[in-house]
Amino acid sequence: MVELGRLGYGAADVGNLYRAISDDEARAVLEAAWESGVRYFDTAPHYGLGLSERRLGSFLATKPREQFRVSTKAGRLLRPSPETAARQDDAHGFAVPASLRRVWDFSAAGIRASLDESLERLGLSRVDILYLHDPDEHDLAADLATAVPALAALRDEGLVDAIGIGSKSTDALLAAVRTGALDLAMVAGRYTLLEQPALEQLLPLCTQRRVSIICGGPFNSGILAAGSRAGANAHYNYAAPPPAVVDRVSKLEALCTEFDIPLRAAALQFPLAHPSVASVVAGCANGAEARDCAAMFSHPIPVAFWHALRDRGLVDARAPVPA
Q1: pLDDT of residue 1
Q2: What is the mean pLDDT of residues 86-97?
Q3: In the structure, how many helices (H) and strands (E) does the chain have?
Q4: Burial grade of 260 (CB within 10 A; 0-12, 13-18, 19 or more)
Q5: What whole-number distance in Å separates Cα of residue 276 and Cα of residue 118?
Q6: Domain range spanning residue 188?
Q7: Residues involved in catalysis
Q8: Cα 63 from Cα 57, distance rounded (Å)
């Protein structure tokens, strides 16, 4: 199993998620994460149509290769799209020109091509982890049938150290883990302080199969960092949060206030109490957020707070909490 730090950096923001940042701003947030002790970085071709990979690769070129771990994803190839180049990639939430288009390809050839192209953008000879990216948004059964053996072949050839799936869908994650071939599952937003649907079947299965869980999106796309009063600036599942979500966040905030702890700290620390969770991967848009994230990750939280969460029905009663 690849050794990962308990706190990782999710590089969608340096792919201009929601808003454009400069190359210098992107480097500043990555440097702040590094200075805060982060050594695991996750990216994908999808993030900013390759911009995230290019910026991350440029940054990592300044660091000793043996000191970091990096993962990327496969399933979407990037191909020229001159007919849309004058538009922004608004449909996917990235503030970049839509000069490329995403082409779903979970074939063996497509998976291998995706890795090769990602390595070129990253400027690396290898990545530590390769995930399937969102096969549930295409043709799940067919995609797993071709892509999982393709990933396993890359691992067997020594081209990657570990393979997995990254998805917001617990059904997709379950189906992929049941193949018996994967080392990791990146659970995006489905095991957080706000909601724990992965606890029903996925996490027990991963424990049984010795599949490590990487918790992506611990802030549920931002709402657990921005808070219930963020209004139009809040995101949940990459969209505006519904009233029920805002109400639940408000109740979590009230408990945090009662115990005088930041909601961000509780959100980052909660998932790691589960024995199958190896790392929490959080996104940050600037250096200040990256430093705050590291501070919140180690912020002291009394055991009584975690028990109050369960006693008041704010998390699933079966969820383990930090001791």
Answers
A1: 65
A2: 96
A3: 11, 12
A4: exposed
A5: 28
A6: 7-311
A7: 47
A8: 10
9 in Cβ contact with 283 (< 8 Å): yes
| Residue 121 vs residues 69, 110, 128, 161, 286: alpha-carbon distances, Å | 16, 16, 15, 19, 22
Q: What is the pLDDT of residue 239?
A: 82
Identify the three-state secondary structure at position 73.
Answer: strand
Total domain count, the chain: 1
Q: Is residue 2 domain-resident? A: no
* CATH assignment of the domain containing 223: 3.20.20.100
pLDDT band at residue 21 using 50, 70 and 90 as cut-offs: very high
322 within domain boundaries: no
Decide if 278 is inside a domain: yes
| 33/64 Cα distance (integer angstroms) | 15
User: In degrees to the nearest 10, what's the CA dihedral of 16, 17, 21, 25?
Assistant: -100
* 240 pLDDT tier (thresholds 50, 70, 90): confident
Residue 103 DSSP label: E
Q: Is the dihedral of CA 43, 48, 54, 60 positive or negative?
A: negative
Note whether residue 316 is domain-resident.
no
Q: Are strands 88-89 and 94-97 parallel, antiparallel or unpaired?
A: antiparallel
Is the pLDDT at 244 greater than 70, yes or no? yes
Give 146's contacts (C-beta < 8 A, 6+ positions apart). 106, 107, 108, 111
pLDDT for the residue 301 = 97
Could you tell me where the beta strands, DSSP code E, fall in the chain?
7-10, 40-42, 69-74, 76-80, 88-89, 94-97, 100-104, 129-133, 162-167, 184-188, 212-216, 277-282
- Return the pLDDT at 232: 65
Is it the case that residue 233 has pLDDT exceeding 90?
Answer: no
Give the CA count within 13 Å in the CB-facing half-sphere of 130.
30
Is the pLDDT at 230 greater than 80? The verdict is no
> From CA 244, how far away is CA 248, in angstroms rounded?
6
188: pLDDT confidence band, cut at 50, 70 and 90? very high
